[in-house]
Write a structure and sequence with these properties.
Elements (H helix, E strand, L loop, with lengths): L2 H42 L6 H70 L11 E2 L3 E2 L6 H4 L13 E2 L7 E2 L2 H23 L28
Antiparallel strand pairs: 1-4, 2-3
Helix pairs in contact: 1-2, 2-4
Length: 225
């Protein structure tokens, strides 16, 4: 059973206890009222009113009320905190699995980037895989030098272009970038929970694996959209 499942089960157990104790308390209150009425009639008739039974019911009601208070003051907050911590850990585990998947993709892509770097004489990184421009882009404004020179769309980079206002679909998003966003979102959820529970402590920072870099020319990272 996972930590998250155990934490949810603990909260469910608290609800079960609360329901059980509340029912027992209500029954004891009803029995006490009946016992007091019977005791009063016994006194009027000159019989033993059964005070010990009444005292026992009163004590049961008081202890049940105290048990219910403990559930809400001690056990529930602890269980809720554990559930939040378990949720944060679950988010981190999911993020870690996605980061590993991302590392595998980058490992497969690296040889192709190295080959391209060798041909072009600069070092390409996975930044070139951040997005693929579609034909829904124009090559700058009519006053731009690129536009005047008639630069072809496929020869221009993201920083050379502006979005076509009549078509909102300007980018094709690669799988690796989608995975990275999902992983980052999960990691940030975990960090938000940990910061809430431990405001004086900084959550552990995630350090992504750095792909091995080949020896070559300086790194020229393209524009990231």
């Amino acid at each position: 059973m996972s930590r998250f499942t155990e934490a949810k089960a603990a909260l469910a157990e608290i609800e079960r206890k609360k329901s059980q104790l509340s029912l027992a308390q209500a029954q004891a209150i009803e029995q006490l009222d009946h016992a007091k009425t019977s005791g009063a009639r016994a006194l009027l008739a000159g019989r033993d009113p059964g005070a010990s039974a009444i005292a026992g019911l009163s004590a049961t009601i008081d202890m049940t009320a105290h048990a219910l208070d403990l559930l809400e003051v001690e056990e529930r907050p602890a269980a809720e905190r554990e559930l939040k911590l378990a949720s944060a850990q679950d988010f981190r585990n999911q993020a870690e699995a996605l980061y590993k998947q991302l590392a595998e993709i980058e490992k497969k892509v690296r040889p192709h980037l190295d080959a391209l770097s060798k041909i072009e004489g600069i070092e390409y990184t996975t930044a070139v895989l951040s997005a693929q421009r579609t034909a829904a882009w124009n090559n700058g404004s009519p006053d731009s030098s690129l536009f005047k020179k008639g630069g072809k769309l496929e020869h221009l980079g993201p920083s050379d272009l502006r979005a076509d206002p009549i078509n909102p679909n300007h980018w094709e998003i690669p799988l690796s970038r989608k995975i990275r966003k999902q992983a980052d979102d999960l990691r940030m959820k975990a960090e938000a929970i940990e910061s809430e529970l431990n405001p004086a402590e900084e959550p552990p920072a995630y350090v992504p694996p750095v792909p091995a870099r080949r020896e070559g020319p300086p790194d020229h990272r393209p524009f990231l959209p």
